[in-house]
Amino acid sequence: MEGKNVDAFLKEKGADWVAGYPQELAEAEAEFAKALGKSKFVNVTTEKDQAQYIITIKVKDFNYGNTAVAVWVGMGAGDAHFNATVEFTKNGSKETVAVLDADGVPGGGFGNEARRRDAYEELGECLVKIIKKAK
Question: Cβ–Cβ contacts within 10 Å for residue 109, how many?
C-alpha cells in the first residue's frame, strides 16, 4: 500500500489501522460484489460450487489519497486510487479466461474506509460495463 508492504504500512500507521484493516477489506469486497451483482449478466455468489467463474483481484498498489485535500479542494482531488489485475478463471480448472488491467481506479469520499469502498465499487461498475459489452 502506497508503495509499501501491507504489513509494514499498517504497522507504521498504528494499532487501530492493523485492527481495522480486515473489516475495511471485507466492506470493500462487499461493495464490489454488490456493484457487480447489479448486472443482469452476473450472478454473484460466495458459494464456490455454484460459481461458473472465479474473479480474482490482485491489487498491485493502493493509495488512500488525502482527506484534507478532498475536503478543501474537492472535484476528485485527494481521491484514493488503486492498480490491480482482475483475473477470470473457469471454476474447477486452472484455465484463465481473461486478465484485465485495472489501473488508476478512483475512490472518493471522506475517510479512508469510504474511499476504499468507493474504489472497489467503481471497479465492480466498470466490470459490469465490460461484461455487458462482451455478452
Answer: 18
Q: What percent of the chain has pLDDT over 70?
A: 90
What digits encode the pLDDT tens for the residues 45-81?
878 888 888 889 999 998 887 766 665 565 556 678 8
In the DSSP assignment, the letter for residue 13 is H
DSSP 8-class letter at 65: -
pLDDT of residue 102: 92
Angle at alpha carbon of residue 3, lines to 114 and 26, rounded to 5°? 35
- The reply to whether the predicted model has a pTM over 0.70 is yes
Q: 50 exposed, middle or buried (CB, 10 Å; 0-12, 13-18, 19+)?
A: exposed
Closest alpha carbon to 132 in 29, 38, 31, 28: 38
Phi and psi angles of residue 105, each rounded to the nearest 5 degrees, phi first: -65, 120
**79: helix, coil or strand?**
coil
More confident residue, 82 or 79: 82
In the 8-state DSSP scheme, what is residue 78? T
**Cα→Cα distances 7→16, 18, 85, 112, 113, Å:** 13, 8, 21, 17, 17
